[in-house]
Amino acid sequence: MTFVNCRKTTQMLRHAVTNGLSVLALTGSCFVAMTTPALAQNVTSTRPVAQDTATQNAALLADAVNFTGTELIASGNVEVHYGDIRLSAERLTYDRTTGALLIDGPIYLSQNGGDTVVLASAAELSSDLRNGILTSARLVIDQQFQLAAASMERIDGRYTRLARTVSSTCKICEGSSVPLWQIRASEVIHDSEARQIYFTDAQLRLWDVPVFFLPRLRLPDPTLERATGFLVPVFSDSSTLGTGLEMPYFITLGDQRDLTISPFIATEARSLDLRYRQAYSNGTLEINGALSTDETDNGLRGYMFVDGQWDVGNDLQFGIDLRATSDISYLLDYDIYDGDRLTSRIWLERYGADTAFDAQLIHIRTLRESEVDIEDTLPFLIGDTSYKHYFSPETLGGTAWVELSSSAFYRESDTDIDGMDVLRTSAELGWKDSAIWGPGIRVDGQVSAVVDAYSIWQSSEYNPHVGRITPAALLRLSYPLERFTSTGAYQMIEPIVQLSWSQSYGDDVPNSDSILTEFDSGNLLALSQFSGSDRRGLGARGAIGAKFSHQGPALSYGVTAGRIIADESDPDYTAVSGLSGITSDLLVAAYAQLDSNLYLSSRALLDSDLFVNKWETRLDLLRERYTLGLVHSYVQADADENRDTDLSELSLDSSIQLNGNWTASLDYRYDFDQTQAASAGLDLEYSNECARIKLGISRRYTDTDSLDPTINYSISVGFGAYGNQTTSSQGTCGF
């Protein structure tokens, strides 16, 4: 090798390559590129470096570099780059005879793009930086987990062995010499390739007080997203199940599958929860389930939810959404699901620019205690399929469509009428177009015809086979007016008048899919306001309405109002739907949005005396530190909709960041008809780089023969980077 001195710039530039040592640049510092030690020690070798796949180049940058014949000494802001390893130090001495590097700190050594960083005061390393000993060392993994040791040994660039180690993700605060929690161990080995940390004689300490001891402990390092091991445990207390502990255990089954086993042991219950997940090249599958025994009289209890979706080719999506439970109260008792009905579905769908296809098979199980006695008379198995194709006829212009559909309703009961089963098959042909006429009046027209064929079993009220045809026509006139205000806002007002007609010809058919109807701005101008195909409208109808909207840079709002006038009343509309009379209720809908952070919407149905039959208002407020969701719903009692009393509820969903680490969440539902709360819950969560603690309390006020009011408490504790929640990067000193 050759004497190198950064002050002799001219001389060094002339010696571009000398005995395996080359100077690449000299401008205020010395930048030296060296071959691997094997090549440096055999400078007479004539084999090209490119032919040796094991050879890697090392780059050295320093304020000064000197060579004494056997030693290369670099000092002042020393940096070494070797493969994916980066080292910086104050002084480095390379002994050509032994191939060893003596390094004086402070030392900064990183590998794998900075995921693993070693800090030390001094080190003796091999020339490839893959083996050696560091003193007064600290290992930092993914900027989260820190391991401090009196000495550290690097082995083959993969393993790091630390003796007499203290490990934590916590920041040591001023006035305290210990972190909130720490793991002390006689020896720790970090496997950077498998991304695992192995502890020997591990002792968990809280505020430096020993609380747990394990002779062997393995943890995944924070860079590993999936690893077999325990997840964050959850402590809970329930007035139904008692005090309990859930300890989830996560098992990796390759890169595409995993299984989570969560035994739950409480004073009044025993449960085993399972979750299986698998990723496919064309979809995903997730299965959740549990088996439980408790102090109720229901024996062995359980549930299973299966969710999956796959792309089966030709833009077809296939999915399953299966739900099953042992009894109607199980899901509420174990805080799994709080809906009124349990719906399972298998579907196949494909949507394109001019075609739409979907087919589904649905199973419905009621979880309402009031409906259990009549469950056999309710459709529990429903099949539905539809294919629709749009095209533009050359002679007519506009847009035409053809639709083929079918549906089936099956009831468990075998009795006449109550056990009625229905199969419907339909074909529809339609056409629509629009044009601008005169001073800017928009004219929309639509015609269609639907042919239905019904097969009906177990019902003496209807013929077993029924055919029906429903022609329909629509003419709509609107006069949209728009302007721009002086502030740059866009405003539009649009009065609308519509006349429509539809009439079904044929024998009577049962009503299975159009019992419940919602009247809103989305179907104000539709041919029929029914939700399904069993009812398609009756006679001539007129609609009148108006829309106003304001779109500004800071504020947007709009109002829609309308009413439908029919030639004759339709008895298939329920009283509370607002459509049962000659003149419908007055529909009023409004919204306002401010700076994308505040959204308010409201919809109401008012009768001829301006008395409210239905009213729903929603407020969503988003701020940097807090969110607020508020919903009020009011619906009158209606026996046709299985509602004996008025429904009036207020729901609240809110969260607030109390400071950099504390977050509170609140959900609340109040029943004005019962003058009491229906449910309430409060969560308080603390999260920083050191720990995560979540406290929760919830109460359900439902009181029926199978459900009692329940109060639940829960607490989960996670340590720093470990667990399944996002940690805060903000350092903090205590709570």
Please sum up the structure shown:
With 735 residues, the chain is mainly β.
Report on the structure:
This protein has 735 residues and is an all-beta fold. Among the domains are: 1-126, lipopolysaccharide transport protein A fold (Sandwich), CATH 2.60.450; 131-224. The chain is built from 3 helices and 44 strands. It has a 26-stranded antiparallel β-barrel. The longest helix has 6 residues, at 9-14.
Show the helix and strand layout.
Blueprint: H1 9-14, E1 21-26, E2 30-34, H2 37-40, E3 58-62, E4 64-67, E5 71-82, E6 85-95, E7 100-111, E8 116-126, E9 132-141, E10 145-155, E11 159-168, E12 181-191, E13 196-206, E14 209-220, E15 229-230, E16 234-238, E17 242-246, E18 249-252, E19 257-266, E20 269-280, E21 283-294, E22 301-313, E23 316-325, H3 330-333, E24 341-351, E25 355-366, E26 381-391, E27 399-410, E28 421-437, E29 441-457, E30 465-478, E31 481-484, E32 490-502, E33 505-506, E34 539-551, E35 555-566, E36 586-594, E37 598-606, E38 612-622, E39 626-635, E40 647-657, E41 662-671, E42 676-687, E43 691-700, E44 710-719
Antiparallel strand pairs: 1-2, 2-3, 3-5, 4-5, 5-6, 6-7, 7-8, 8-9, 9-10, 10-11, 11-12, 12-13, 13-14, 15-18, 16-17, 16-44, 17-19, 18-19, 19-20, 20-21, 21-22, 22-23, 23-24, 24-25, 25-26, 26-27, 27-28, 28-29, 29-30, 30-32, 30-33, 31-32, 32-34, 34-35, 35-36, 36-37, 37-38, 38-39, 39-40, 40-41, ...
